[in-house]
Amino acid sequence: MKIAILSRGPELYSTRRLVEAAKERGHDVRVIDALRCYMNINSVSPEVHYKGEILEGFDAIIPRIGASVTFYGTAVLRQFEMMNVFPLNESVAISRSRDKLRSLQLLSRKGVGLPVSGIAHSPDDVDDLLKIVGGAPVVIKLLEGTQGVGVVLAETKSAATSVIQAFHGLKANILVQEFIKEAGGADIRCFVVGGKVIAAMKRQGKEGEFRSNLHQGGSANLIKITASERATAVNAAKIMGLNVCGVDLLRSNHGPVVMEVNSSPGLEGIEGATGKDIAGMIIGFIETNANKKTVNRTKTVGKG
Question: Which of 123, 137, 162, 219 is 20 to 30 Å apart from 193, CA to CA?
Answer without folding.
Answer: 219
